[in-house]
């Protein structure tokens, strides 16, 4: 099942410099809530900046669904420091509110009013708003308030390019697609280790066929005894399955062709919703399978920084894959900023490993096979003596066996990285996290579930949100980038005004174009 990469590791050990320049970026989503735990009903505060144009603080689906975006950096400490500054800066501006520490909206009730995010009167702002109206009409309000952490990761060019004669776009894109296929084969390890949504609000199960026998606590929160990340299950945040779109990540051209087809093919369910209501208001951007590329919800996506006026498909087609976006990370409720350093270090190691292992090209049968292991881990990953499929003959090995096999390689990669930096950070992270396999009670999902049963999800969430708010306020006089962030607030409002004043097309023509 797992390829022997000892030769590649030897090559890496001889050439540690090719790992110099790993770049990362973090996007953390989180709900603004009132002190009593209910959803905030206030608009996105102007004192934080314009969500349309602010570089680092925006909104996702709802007005109260914040998104913190770090700059791209090759320095992990800088990323963590910047993310802490963003949280402290916002905490100062919303003294009477808190931020929710979980991915799942356990604070939701029947009276909750979810306001779809607004971005002003420009064509761009209206497009972003209508896209979200489309998400509401297609999948519902509540499901779009589920939050996560996205980890953007790129390897240095020297890692991929071993000859000047090679075509850079083809080689790098092929390498990242290999990494992505391996992430689908083995990436279930991430929700096992770091999944933090073992329970789900009752509202998510009202119109769902229950394949598993859920239990519930006193506050009507449903859970499974060994689940890890219900957020990424088919009752959490999923839309059209990529298997139905024939997206296999085998080569860039076929990936882009499949994605473009999804963006231009009408889908009966969405056609029935209608493009506009009877008053002429847009119900969605279009009636196709996907309104925009971002609607393709997957565990991992190939990405490229776009230029002004350029779509993601155009950018990928022109210049190839630049980085990958990991989307299967729950918010870590035991970290004030939703992620910790050990997670970042482990993700680095695992993604390098995925790049080193040869991944055969996949057909639909292969892809469906990989989903079996994801489902096992998502719904019952911590089950004693849990076994994982190792091939399509239905042969299995225990999770502990497979996990320890993977970590043997990860430890070797950790040694190479640490040796080049003259420290033990990666090795220490490995040593700590590998213990999660033999002792599942150490996993984040087990710790969450224990608190949910003993204390309750809502009460636990409020306790953590108050604790973290205090931490953010106490460090607010030490915000290193405070002046920088205040300046960005002003700049973002001005940028929004400029965009609104520069519009020359009607919205109808803008959408057609």
UniProtKB/TrEMBL annotation:
Any one GO biological process: glutathione biosynthetic process
SUPFAM superfamilies in the cross-refs: Glutamine synthetase/guanido kinase
Domain of life (superkingdom): Bacteria
Top-level enzyme category: ligase
UniProt-listed Enzyme Commission number(s): 6.3.2.2
Catalyzed reaction equations: L-cysteine + L-glutamate + ATP = gamma-L-glutamyl-L-cysteine + ADP + phosphate + H(+)
Keyword tags: ATP-binding, Glutathione biosynthesis, Ligase, Nucleotide-binding
Domain Glutamate--cysteine ligase: 11-377
Similarity section: Belongs to the glutamate--cysteine ligase type 1 family. Type 1 subfamily.
HAMAP family, per the entry: Glu_cys_ligase
Protein name, as recorded: Glutamate--cysteine ligase
């Amino acid at each position: 099942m797992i390829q022997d990469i000892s030769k590649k590791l030897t090559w890496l050990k001889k050439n540690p410099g090719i790992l110099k320049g790993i770049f990362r970026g973090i996007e953390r989503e989180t709900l603004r809530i009132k002190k009593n735990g209910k959803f905030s009903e206030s608009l996105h505060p102007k004192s934080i900046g314009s969500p349309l144009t602010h570089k680092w603080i925006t909104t996702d689906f709802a007005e109260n669904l914040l998104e913190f975006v770090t700059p791209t950096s090759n320095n992990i400490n800088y990323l963590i420091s910047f993310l802490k500054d963003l949280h402290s800066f916002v905490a100062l501006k919303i003294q009477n509110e808190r931020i929710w520490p979980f991915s799942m909206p356990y604070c939701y009730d029947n009276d909750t009013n979810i306001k779809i995010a607004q971005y002003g009167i420009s064509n761009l702002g209206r497009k972003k708003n209508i896209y979200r109206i489309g998400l509401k009409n297609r999948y519902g309000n509540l499901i779009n308030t589920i939050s996560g952490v996205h980890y953007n990761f790129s390897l240095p060019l020297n890692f991929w390019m071993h000859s000047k004669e090679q075509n850079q776009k083809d080689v790098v894109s092929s390498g990242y697609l290999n990494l992505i296929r391996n992430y689908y084969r083995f990436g279930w390890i991430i929700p096992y280790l770091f999944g933090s949504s073992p329970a789900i609000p009752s509202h998510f199960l009202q119109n769902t066929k229950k394949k598993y026998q859920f239990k519930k606590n006193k506050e009507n929160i449903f859970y499974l005894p060994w689940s890890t990340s219900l957020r990424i299950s088919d009752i959490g945040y999923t839309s059209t399955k990529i298997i139905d779109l024939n997206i296999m990540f085998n080569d860039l051209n076929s990936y882009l062709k499949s994605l473009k087809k999804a963006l231009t093919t009408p889908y009966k369910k969405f056609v029935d919703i209608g493009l506009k209501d009877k008053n002429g208001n847009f119900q969605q951007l279009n009636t196709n399978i996907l309104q925009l590329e971002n609607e393709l919800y997957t565990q991992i996506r190939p990405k490229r920084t776009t230029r002004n006026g350029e779509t993601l498909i155009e950018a990928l087609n022109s210049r190839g894959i630049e980085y990958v976006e990991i989307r299967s990370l729950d918010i870590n409720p035991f970290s004030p900023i939703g992620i910790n350093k050990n997670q970042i270090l482990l993700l680095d190691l695992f993604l390098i490993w995925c790049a080193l292992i040869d991944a055969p090209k996949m057909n639909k049968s292969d892809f469906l096979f990989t989903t079996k292991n994801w489902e096992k881990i998502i719904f019952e990953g911590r089950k004693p003596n849990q076994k994982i499929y190792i091939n399509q003959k239905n042969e299995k090995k225990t999770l502990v066996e497979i996990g320890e096999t993977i970590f043997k390689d990860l430890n070797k990669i950790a040694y190479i990285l640490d040796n080049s930096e003259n420290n033990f950070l990666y090795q220490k992270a490995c040593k700590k996290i590998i213990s999660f396999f033999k002792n599942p009670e150490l996993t984040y999902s087990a710790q969450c579930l224990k608190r949910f049963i003993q204390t309750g999800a809502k009460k636990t969430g409020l306790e953590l949100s108050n604790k973290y708010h205090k931490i953010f306020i106490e460090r607010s006089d030490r915000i290193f980038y405070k002046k920088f962030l205040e300046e960005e607030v002003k700049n973002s409002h001005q940028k929004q005004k400029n965009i609104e004043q520069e519009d020359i097309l009607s919205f109808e023509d803008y959408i057609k174009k």
